[in-house]
Amino acid sequence: MPLSLPIALDAMGGDKAPEAVIQGARRVLKEFPQTRFIFYGREPVIAPLIARSRSLARASQVVHAETVVAMDEKPSVALRKGRDSSMRAAIDAVADGKACAIVSAGNTGALMATAKFVLRTLPGIDRPAITATVPSRHRPVVLLDMGANLECTAEYLVQFAVMGDAYARAVMGMAAPKIGLLNVGSEDMKGHEEVKEAHQMLRSGNYPIEYHGFVEGNDILEGTTDVVVTDGFTGNIALKTAEGASRLIYETLKSAIERSFLAKIGYLFARPAIRMAMKRFDPRKLNGAILLGLNGIAVKSHGGADAKSYANAIKVAISMVENQVNEKIIAELARIGRDKNATVVPITVPMVD
Amino acid sequence: MPLSLPIALDAMGGDKAPEAVIQGARRVLKEFPQTRFIFYGREPVIAPLIARSRSLARASQVVHAETVVAMDEKPSVALRKGRDSSMRAAIDAVADGKACAIVSAGNTGALMATAKFVLRTLPGIDRPAITATVPSRHRPVVLLDMGANLECTAEYLVQFAVMGDAYARAVMGMAAPKIGLLNVGSEDMKGHEEVKEAHQMLRSGNYPIEYHGFVEGNDILEGTTDVVVTDGFTGNIALKTAEGASRLIYETLKSAIERSFLAKIGYLFARPAIRMAMKRFDPRKLNGAILLGLNGIAVKSHGGADAKSYANAIKVAISMVENQVNEKIIAELARIGRDKNATVVPITVPMVD
């Protein structure tokens, strides 16, 4: 499905807003000239910046929003008091059918709370999950939840598994993605109650997914499964730990090589290959976490995103729209619902005869 | 304090037991010739292996134990039925004052449950925590809990902070270790109830530690704090994720360099420097997690440990004994108890006059 509607951008969200948002949109426009944008934010500030690029100005609309949600605002406060904020206005645009997706680099908690309130969840989904894609040994791995739900019931985890499956199929084109549940060991007895219960449910065969079983921390980047499901507390920490570890090892090796003159010479020649190999791990290429499970497409960019990084978040939104991910999640959940009903029917006892 | 008693070794625990245990002990003996060992396990199997090294045989005793705790045994079952196991016998030796520490590469859950039952916890400690040391940008970082307590109250987390502080001071010689509490963000409002409550308690000034505040996943290997406190579920996954990420980046870079001929030549010359730099990240050098908070020293080796790796776990036990870590934790907890009482006194109302 081509983009028939513009993308709503919270022009004021993020540490480098509005510059990074506007330059990010400009980058996307070069690659996808058919894209249209609506920028929400302080018109006197953003309009002149957009006007600097004629092509961007032609593809864009600016809608004034008086306030900005602060990065340290409590989600409940942002929801109550942020009605005239750029974030709220951009989300409203999706609900009102004026935009096909919303992208924001603002306060994550506020974005999730507001988007959930305005857009509601997909039928069959209780809680949306922040979904990220990380590089692994062979191919990218889908990780959810990355921080929306710090505590999760078994049901939430199962819903995340179904959403992750639909996402991997729709956006990443995988035929039968393997789904893993993150735990402290692979044996059935391991883990806390919620994770053990979710394991039993996923193993029951009631869900049309390829459930692999428990996976451990080291399996994430090993790519043991295509999707890794966990609660938002653990997922957030695992993701950031992996980022920190990657950076440390990379920098340690680089400085060890640079201290050796001959290795340095060799490194100069190997640099293209090394850069190519490391490109997969560039966090900017991974920017753009989806608030999956909402009845509307919302993408969260990292707060510190630069233009290149922000552009990637917009591209994630485009890919969500073009691949009709939400439609596919609805279809998959409906199928599970039907299958469940089908198995329930024979054991129902008529109450009246 | 020099080692006045032998170290009890569960000779049958671990995937490569008893060979890795015996060869590990032999390596330690070369470095610390004054060390003595008691090997617990199937005497007909282990005695001949020990006899191969005259020096090890002279430094060792073998005590027969009929059974072995299986790696997938439930902790409760191991505790109930494992009374004649090598693991239980080795732990008993510490309780009976025959050994100064016990090392096992066996079933973690069984080791924790049995050690807790036999040795009990230190006064003031409710739950022991699995404590590991990981490399960071500048110096090693103490991490706890790595998997003993999958769900933690705020009180447990606070006790872990105090134990981590004592450990960093005693074993790592830090004067005023900075303590961080792992969370999904650094703002006070972030996190689930337990972590927020622990944060308030640690900030109260009632604990004589340098509390830094919340840290995030990327702070662990960045070395933002000297000690990182978290629950066992998150800690286990963070540790294994960091291991996986380090391995992936290292191998990706290495193969990119090896594909380039010139870089390969340079690499040959840089190899000593690279090896030196990477040595810090060798997981074998990090083997040996302490069951901190027990009234006795128990060290868990990785189940798949080889001799070199196992030797490191024994050295961790030696360092625990020599640095009198438990004595220091007791002293620190007693001091906190006194301080607490001191602040309580003025507001107590005499019941009888």
Architecture overview:
The structure is a homodimer. Chain A has about 350 residues and is of the alpha/beta class. Chain A has helices spanning about 20-30, 45-50, 55-60, 75-80, 85-95, 110-120, 155-170, 195-205, 215-220, 230-260, 260-280, 305-320, 325-345, and strands at about 5-10, 35-40, 60-65, 100-105, 130-135, 140-145, 180, 210-215, 225-230, 290, 295-300. The first copy, chain A, has an 11-stranded mixed sheet, sandwiched between helices. In chain A, strand 10 (about 290) and strand 11 form a beta hairpin. Residues about 340-353 of chain A have low confidence and may be disordered. Chains A and B meet through helix 9, helix 10 and helix 11 of A and helix 9, helix 10 and helix 11 of B.
Brief synopsis:
The structure is a homodimer of 353-residue chains. Chain A is of the alpha/beta class and 353 residues long.
Q: How much beta of chain A, percentage-wise?
A: 5-15%
Most extensive chain interface and residues per partner: A-B, 63 and 63 residues
Radius of gyration of chain A: 22 Å
Average pLDDT confidence of chain A is 89
Shape of chain A: globular
Major sheet of chain A: 11 strands, mixed
Structural descriptors:
homodimer; 11 strands; eleven-stranded mixed sheet; alpha/beta; 353 residues; globular
Write the layout of secondary structure elements.
Two copies of one chain form a homodimer.
Chain A: E1 7-10, H1 19-31, E2 37-41, H2 43-51, H3 54-59, E3 60-64, H4 75-81, H5 86-95, E4 101-104, H6 108-119, E5 129-134, E6 141-144, H7 154-170, E7 178-182, H8 193-203, E8 210-215, H9 217-222, E9 227-229, H10 232-259, H11 261-279, E10 289-292, E11 297-300, H12 307-322, H13 325-344
Parallel strand pairs in A: 1-2, 1-4, 2-3, 4-11, 6-9, 7-8, 7-9
Antiparallel strand pairs in A: 5-6, 5-10, 10-11
